[in-house]
């Protein structure tokens, strides 16, 4: 049995942060119920022994895909360090208390933007979005902006985590961790 590789991830992220590498951006891949994939960059906002957390509009394309097909893959690439981390697993919404706490700490402009945007829906003009933003700003003028009921967090609960380390001559190192029956096992992969 191997220790939870998320601890290895957290150690790598701390080292990267100390070297002034932004560790938040990650490519998130989802698929619809027909298996058609889509990928986009999200910002990881929390990582712990339970998984990898990001936030979004539940009605967005990724939100709809995650709710109907709750599995995802995540990839972070830190080119200056020649490191990549890949994660695969099931997805679940985080609880309302956690989403509320994260939302409360966001900049006010981002809070208002969450209310104003019908993320992933067709927009007829930039002016429409700006008008919606002004309306939301006026609605919450002088007060706290609550989290919209259609916005919150998702947690990827990993069943596979791979660490890739670039090496000269393309002799890269790949360490794969797989969760089965509640225990992690590790193995090396050819580059």
Strand content: 35-45%
Q: Would you list the SSEs in sequence order as H and E?
A: HEEEEHEEHHHEEE
- Low-confidence region ranges: none
Percent helix: 25-40%
State the major sheet: 9 strands, antiparallel
| SS field, number of helical segments | 5
Structural class: alpha+beta
State the total count of DSSP E strands: 9
Distance linking N and C termini: 24 Å
Q: Would you tell me which CATH topology applies?
A: Pnp Oxidase, Chain A
**What count of structural domains?**
1
Characterize the overall form: elongated
Output mean pLDDT: 95
| CATH hierarchy: architecture | Roll
**What is the CATH top level name?**
Mainly Beta
- According to CATH, the homologous superfamily is Electron Transport, Fmn-binding Protein, Chain A
Tell me the radius of gyration. 19 Å
Short account of what is shown:
The protein is an alpha+beta fold and 191 residues long.
Please provide a written account of the structure.
With 191 residues, the chain is an alpha+beta fold. It has one domain: Electron Transport, Fmn-binding Protein, Chain A (Pnp Oxidase, Chain A). Strand 7 and strand 8 form a beta hairpin. The longest helix has 14 residues. The mean pLDDT is 95.
Please specify the SSE layout and strand pairing.
Layout: H1 5-18, E1 25-31, E2 37-43, E3 46-48, E4 51-57, H2 61-68, E5 71-78, E6 83-93, H3 96-104, H4 108-116, H5 126-139, E7 151-165, E8 173-180, E9 183-189
Antiparallel strand pairs: 1-2, 1-5, 3-4, 4-7, 5-6, 6-7, 7-8, 8-9
Helix pairs in contact: 4-5
């Amino acid at each position: 049995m191997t220790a939870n590789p998320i601890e290895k991830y957290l150690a790598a992220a701390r080292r990267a942060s100390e070297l002034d590498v932004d560790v938040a951006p990650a490519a998130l891949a989802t698929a619809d119920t027909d298996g058609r994939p889509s990928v986009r960059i999200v910002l990881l906002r929390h990582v712990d022994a339970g998984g990898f957390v990001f936030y979004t509009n539940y009605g967005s394309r990724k939100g709809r895909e995650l709710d109907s097909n709750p599995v995802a893959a995540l990839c972070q690439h830190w080119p200056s360090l020649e490191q990549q981390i890949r994660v695969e697993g099931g997805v679940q919404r985080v609880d309302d208390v956690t989403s509320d706490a994260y939302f409360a700490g966001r900049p006010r402009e981002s809070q208002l933007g969450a209310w104003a945007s019908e993320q992933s829906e067709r927009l007829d003009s930039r002016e429409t979005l700006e008008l919606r933003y002004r309306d939301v700003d006026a609605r919450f003028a002088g007060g706290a902006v609550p989290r919209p009921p259609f916005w919150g967090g998702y947690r990827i609960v990993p069943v596979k985590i791979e660490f890739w380390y670039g090496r000269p001559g393309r002799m890269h190192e790949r360490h794969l961790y797989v969760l089965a029956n509640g225990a992690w096992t590790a193995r090396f992969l050819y580059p």
